Amino acid sequence: MNPFDSCQYPDQETSGMNRAPGSVSIVGAGPGDPGLITVRGRDRLAAAEVVIYDDLAGGVLAAWCPPECQRIYVGKRCGRISALQNRITALMVAEARAGRRVVRLKGGDPFVFGRGGEELAALIRAGIPCEVVPGVTAATAAAAAAGVPLTQRGITSAVVFLTGHESAESPTGPIDWEAYARLGATLCLYMGTSNLGEVARKLTAGGMAAGMPVALVSRASCADQRVRLLRLGDLLRGTFGAFEAPGLAIIGEVARVASAAGELASLAAANA
Amino acid sequence: MNPFDSCQYPDQETSGMNRAPGSVSIVGAGPGDPGLITVRGRDRLAAAEVVIYDDLAGGVLAAWCPPECQRIYVGKRCGRISALQNRITALMVAEARAGRRVVRLKGGDPFVFGRGGEELAALIRAGIPCEVVPGVTAATAAAAAAGVPLTQRGITSAVVFLTGHESAESPTGPIDWEAYARLGATLCLYMGTSNLGEVARKLTAGGMAAGMPVALVSRASCADQRVRLLRLGDLLRGTFGAFEAPGLAIIGEVARVASAAGELASLAAANA
Q1: E strand or H helix that includes residue B201
Q2: Which residues in chain B have Cβ-Cβ distances shorter than 8 Å to A116?
Q3: Is there a common fold for A16-133 and A138-267?
Q4: Which one, A91, B28, B59, B173, has the greatest CB density within 10 A?
Q5: Is the CB of residue B221 less than 8 Å from the CB of residue B248?
Q6: A123: left (phi over 0), alpha (psi -120 to 50) or beta
Q7: How far apart are CA A55 and CA A90, in angstroms?
Q8: Do B134 and A136 make contact, defined as CB atoms within 8 angstroms?
């Protein structure tokens, strides 16, 4: 059975033949909390006729997508990423050519580990009117949740976003973790929870101290968000327990400032 | 004359003595376009009694702040950054202690080159209920404007945010540009337009090719946004013309994908 078969398909019957040309908005949904999409992103959802969404964007969809809008799920349950990416592209093009206003809703920001670049390029090749609406990326949402500034005067003036599981894909070879360890920058690891121990070992080999502070944030901005403050040595030893996806690790001296987490959570709850 | 004297001050008369405790929301305004603040950020503005804002947040304020809300400008025209930062902190604490709902509105994301960490720490020390509402940071807004993904399969799986003018402030010493040149990561330079030539020289010394693509984006997301696509060599020679602040440079192989800029601009205009 084709893994895509379990997903929803567009209803071809509703595609009129004499409509105005359609368009695709590639919209960043933000980190998960429906309040953290942009006003424009929410407006695009409210006006959408079709929304093509994946795993990270479900809550945002439930909050802002009108009931008459068609929703097409194309997340991980739909199969292998590479085959899926071609199907998603074909779907967007077909829906737009049928004259529909399409929103491609992606978790976080479309251009930070979101494959938004590939989708945008395909739309442009196909001559579809399109735009990118940026979103709050997971690192800044995690930082806000933990009370950890990503840059701070006197601590660091650089921040790096990395994934822990994409080393084989780059033509420049695997990520040189030892070089990153020496930059003095804040390192934000996206979705790297499965190999945090291995990354910590390489950072240590690059000279990063085992006492380097780390903030682990799982499901940033969601109701079940969790922040844990620990040290690089805890990652080395694997003594940080279970960690629910999507997760983000903020590694750097800035994580010393994270004592604010409790107070932040309380106001957020009071204002919810 | 004290440089702060030209700024607005809070109206002490309106501060009641028997009100509930106030609070401060440190809100990221996003890159400038009022549509690119988050829904929560806009809601906090709509409910604010006092907004303390600076240069980058003016358009957002005009769009979403209710007329009866007091607006206090504390941007660059108010004087030296270090003195100003203490005044801003004192102002936030005083307004919250007077029982008011305060929004501290900051351009971009509060925790990416926004000094939000310092302000948050001061509020927590003072015992003020507070939160951080993240925002769309300039790099992702510039990327969306230029059609340049910050990461892309087969090109790079890392992105770095840096400032071009903060080298003396870090205890780890000046930024090691030559090391950054060798990472194979996308480099996003915030507000670094005054010394792009110097940065380009150091990146070249680190082995980055003069042919490396660069997207220069000024006033990303604003009506007068401008995208220029060039090469590191153009930065070296200074042949890129005037560049209006706030500006952002995206340096890396991903900038080859930027041919999309024209199409993106057209849909954005059609939807405005």
Answers
A1: helix B196-205
A2: 149
A3: no
A4: B28
A5: no
A6: alpha
A7: 19
A8: yes
Output the six-digit token pair for B96: 């919250």
Contact A145, A32 (CB under 8 A): no
Residues forming a β-bridge with B26: B104, B132
Q: Kindly identify which residue of chain A lies nearest to residue B63, measuring between CA atoms.
A: A39
Catalytic residue flag (residue A54): yes
- Chain A interface test: which of B27, B80, B140, B187 (most A C-beta within 10 Å): B140
Q: Is the ipTM of this complex over 0.90?
A: no
CA distance B118 to B256: 37
What class does CATH assign to A138-267?
A: alpha beta
Report the CATH fold assignment for B16-133.
Answer: Cobalt-precorrin-4 Transmethylase; domain 1 (3.40.1010)
CA B79 to chain centre: 19
Supply the angle between the helices B116-125 and B81-97 in degrees, to the nearest 10: 40
Per-residue pLDDT tens listing for chain A (272 residues): 333 333 333 343 344 445 567 999 999 999 999 999 999 999 999 999 999 998 888 889 999 999 999 999 998 777 676 678 889 999 999 999 999 999 999 999 999 998 999 999 999 999 999 999 999 999 999 999 999 999 998 899 999 999 876 555 555 668 899 999 999 999 999 976 678 899 999 999 999 999 999 999 998 998 888 899 999 999 999 887 777 778 899 999 999 887 544 445 444 444 44
Order of strands, sheet of A50-53, starting from the edge strand that comes earlier in the sequence: A70-73, A50-53, A101-106, A23-28, A130-133
d(CA A232, CA A224): 24
Domain boundaries along the sequence of chain A: 16-133, 138-267
